[in-house]
């Protein structure tokens, strides 16, 4: 097809790769910076179908690095998946887009993979706990996935198949630094580089070349790109890819109070709280069918339709627990 000619005449990808791409179902976990950029590239390239899962609404502070969103989306508190779906449909109406506005948790990830049956999964999340969970769920369902992360000016990408080394193997060797976008910031160029490299791994896999089997790291400020051959990193007693012990997947239930990036806590209420939000002692600043922006005792908060609430400006777990109890009591 003329539309895709320039990519299809690149011989290593070729018509074969293009045909595979047009018949591939890709699940993108997260519609923030990495997820939205991967989705845009794959939509422009003519992917068969994309299923995108995300639970956030667009905020003004996202716009410096999440190129597909605009001020109107932030003003309207648009869920990222809905705003993304609308834009992707304008870019390429041939791609089947399924947008799921919901939280990804240890309770639903396996079911989502089994229900939607993607051929491959792309990581667009922003925390390591979620990536351990994706690692376990994808290993259990035998679905390849591509890890991507960006913080500060640094990024890393690693594509993982069932045979490993898996993400758990890798993290035994490469320790977590505890850095996060909320604390350490993020420089927009590294987002584009990581998202591009995630898509590159996908294109290799699609066109029959297989994953690069390299851990790719880059720094968009010092201008460094390094690769590390990962074949030697497989842990022979890995709990996940050797012993199939899925610690994160099998955790009994989701917590009511959970620490997020920076000084943010996630509180989980019953979904009905969204409809009874006027009973809360909070002040509603702005709202739509998907989210309500509120303030309470100096805290900024966003309440979502499914009962989740992000509270900004909270430092202590004890304060978060107390806030949860106070608010929960008011809607009982
Ligand atoms: Zn492993």
UniProtKB/TrEMBL annotation:
InterPro entries reported in the protein's UniProt record: ThiF/MoeB/HesA, ThiF_NAD_FAD-bd, Ubiquitin-activating_enz
Coiled coil segments of this chain: none
Domain THIF-type NAD/FAD binding fold: 4-240
Highest taxon, organism lineage: Bacteria
Keyword Cytoplasm tagged: no
One function term, GO molecular function aspect: nucleotidyltransferase activity
Gene3D superfamilies found in the cross-reference section: NAD(P)-binding Rossmann-like Domain
Keywords carried by this UniProt record: Nucleotidyltransferase, Transferase
UniProt entry tagged with the keyword Transferase: yes
CDD domains: ThiF_MoeB_HesA_family
Protein name: Thiazole biosynthesis adenylyltransferase ThiF
């Amino acid at each position: 097809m003329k539309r895709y000619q320039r990519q299809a005449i690149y011989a290593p990808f070729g018509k074969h790769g293009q045909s595979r791409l047009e018949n591939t179902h890709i699940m993108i976990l997260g519609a923030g910076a990495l997820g939205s950029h991967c989705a845009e590239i794959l939509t422009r390239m003519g992917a068969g179908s994309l299923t995108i899962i995300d639970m956030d609404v667009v905020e003004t502070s996202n716009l410096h690095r999440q190129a597909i969103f605009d001020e109107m989306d932030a003003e309207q508190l648009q869920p990222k998946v809905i705003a993304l779906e609308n834009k992707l449909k304008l870019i390429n109406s041939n791609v089947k887009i399924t947008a799921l506005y919901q939280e990804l948790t240890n309770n639903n990830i396996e079911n989502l993979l089994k229900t939607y049956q993607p051929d491959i999964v792309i990581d667009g999340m922003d925390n390591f706990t979620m990536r351990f969970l994706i690692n376990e769920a994808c290993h259990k369902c035998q679905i390849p996935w591509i890890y991507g992360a960006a913080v500060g000016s640094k990024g890393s990408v690693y594509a993982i198949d069932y045979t490993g080394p898996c993400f758990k193997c890798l993290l035994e060797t490469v320790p977590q630094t505890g850095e996060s976008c909320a604390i350490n910031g993020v420089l927009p160029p590294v987002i584009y580089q990581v998202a591009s490299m995630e898509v590159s791994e996908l294109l290799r896999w699609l066109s029959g070349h297989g994953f690069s089997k390299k851990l790719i790291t880059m720094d968009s400020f010092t201008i460094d790109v390094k690769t590390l051959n990962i074949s030697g990193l497989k842990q022979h007693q890995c709990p996940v890819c050797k012993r199939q012990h899925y610690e994160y997947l099998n955790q009994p239930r989701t917590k009511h109070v959970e620490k997020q990036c920076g000084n943010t806590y996630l509180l989980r209420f019953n979904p009905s709280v969204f409809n009874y939000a006027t009973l809360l002692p909070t002040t509603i600043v702005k709202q739509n069918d998907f989210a309500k922006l509120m303030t309470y005792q100096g805290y900024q908060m966003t309440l979502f339709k499914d009962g989740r609430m992000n509270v900004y400006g909270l430092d202590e777990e004890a304060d978060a627990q107390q806030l949860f109890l106070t608010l929960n009591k008011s809607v009982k």
